[in-house]
């Protein structure tokens, strides 16, 4: 066996431990800003510690957990070399799944895999995650940055995260609370959010458009529009759920699968939400994707949020109070439909969805045309 002429070290294999340490130093202040009195210890421990004593005040606390990533939207961030907004996409995808059941997201951890640790880039990503956690009222208690040379390119990375929340058992939201006659309220998205970017990127590449292109309909460059951070609804939804006059029975986070599929997941079998498209106008970016790619409407609706990022299902007599509460918090919202008896569709019906993502639940019918 022939020994190499020079020593092989971890650094020569492509892993820079010192760069990782520098990244931690750059992000410490942002992470610490998310901590409250329940977080124990500082940044850099083997495990994040959270004081669960507050759960003693619950009669029957239920823990809720969720994990997710950002998908191929990271490719846009990497192409534009802008990394401090992608954290909102990550946090939104995770904590807004938790609040759907009425749970408060208590703490979160993140994971970043990259081809090469560039301290400033990693710190920018984590600063974005921390800023979004502050908006959500969630503590960022730990994370991991892994350098994978040879597996990922020097400028490539992916992010993922997980969060844990709690809800009192008798405050749990879900299909069992939804009733015939309930009203469906849509909350505006900030843009495409973090789902459907494989379709969007394919359309853009096919059209030959560059991210630097100024688009008059958008009022900015294409890249700036596509990198618009996901709206984080957690604090707004929790406030609405705790506001008794709002009469909240359920929420639906509109992510992969689109509005109808995700709304159907939180409806009980035997009931159907009828959603009127004419109650809102498609934001320009969605019209652009549809036109550039000649994307069929059913495919758009199964892939993108089309301007609706979160849905609340409320008692009919409480709809006005719910809308006023959301408006006071700066969340654009409107009545988009009602809940009634489920129908039996005949044949293939692109406007009708029953059950989704393994949930044998209720149904959703989209009617009318977008305003």
From TrEMBL:
It comes from the Bacteria. The keyword Cytoplasm applies. GO terms for cellular component: cytosol. One of its GO terms (biological process) is 'de novo' IMP biosynthetic process. Its EC number is 6.3.3.1. CDD domains: PurM. It catalyses: 2-formamido-N(1)-(5-O-phospho-beta-D-ribosyl)acetamidine + ATP = 5-amino-1-(5-phospho-beta-D-ribosyl)imidazole + ADP + phosphate + H(+). Belongs to the AIR synthase family. PANTHER family: TRIFUNCTIONAL PURINE BIOSYNTHETIC PROTEIN ADENOSINE-3, TRIFUNCTIONAL PURINE BIOSYNTHETIC PROTEIN ADENOSINE-3-RELATED. This is Phosphoribosylformylglycinamidine cyclo-ligase. It comes from Arthrobacter yangruifuii.
């Amino acid at each position: 066996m022939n020994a190499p002429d020079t020593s092989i070290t971890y650094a020569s294999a492509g892993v820079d431990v010192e760069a990782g340490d520098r990244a931690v130093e750059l992000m410490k202040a942002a992470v610490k800003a998310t901590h409250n009195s329940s977080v124990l210890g500082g940044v850099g421990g083997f495990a994040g510690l959270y004081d669960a004593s507050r759960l003693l005040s619950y009669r029957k606390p239920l823990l809720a957990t969720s994990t997710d990533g950002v998908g191929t939207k990271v490719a846009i961030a990497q192409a534009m070399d802008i990394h401090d907004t992608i954290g909102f996409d990550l946090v939104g995808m995770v904590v807004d799944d938790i609040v759907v059941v009425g749970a408060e997201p208590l703490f979160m951890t993140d994971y970043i895999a990259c081809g090469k640790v560039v301290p400033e880039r990693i710190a920018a990503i984590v600063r974005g995650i921390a800023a979004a956690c502050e908006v959500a009222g969630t503590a960022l208690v730990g994370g991991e940055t892994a350098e994978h040379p040879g597996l990922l390119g020097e400028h490539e990375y992916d992010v993922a995260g997980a969060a844990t929340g709690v809800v009192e058992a008798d405050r749990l939201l879900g299909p069992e609370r939804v009733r015939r006659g309930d009203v469906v309220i849509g909350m505006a998205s900030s843009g495409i959010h973090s789902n459907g970017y494989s379709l969007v990127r394919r359309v853009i590449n096919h059209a030959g458009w560059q991210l630097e292109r100024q688009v008059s309909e958008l009022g900015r460059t294409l890249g700036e529009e596509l990198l618009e951070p996901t709206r984080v609804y957690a604090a707004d939804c929790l406030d609405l759920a705790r506001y008794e006059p709002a009469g909240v029975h359920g929420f639906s986070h509109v992510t992969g699968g689109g509005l109808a599929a995700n709304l159907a997941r939180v409806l009980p079998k035997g009931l159907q939400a009828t959603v009127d498209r004419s109650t809102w106008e498609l934001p320009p970016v969605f019209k652009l994707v549809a036109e550039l790619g000649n994307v069929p409407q059913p495919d758009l609706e199964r892939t993108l949020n089309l301007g609706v990022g979160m849905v609340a299902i409320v008692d009919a007599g409480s709809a006005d109070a719910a809308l006023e509460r959301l408006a006071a918090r700066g969340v654009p919202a409107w009545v988009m439909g009602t809940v009634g008896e489920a129908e039996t569709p005949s044949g293939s019906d692109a406007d009708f969805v029953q059950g989704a993502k393994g949930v044998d639940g209720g149904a959703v019918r989209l009617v009318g045309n977008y305003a």
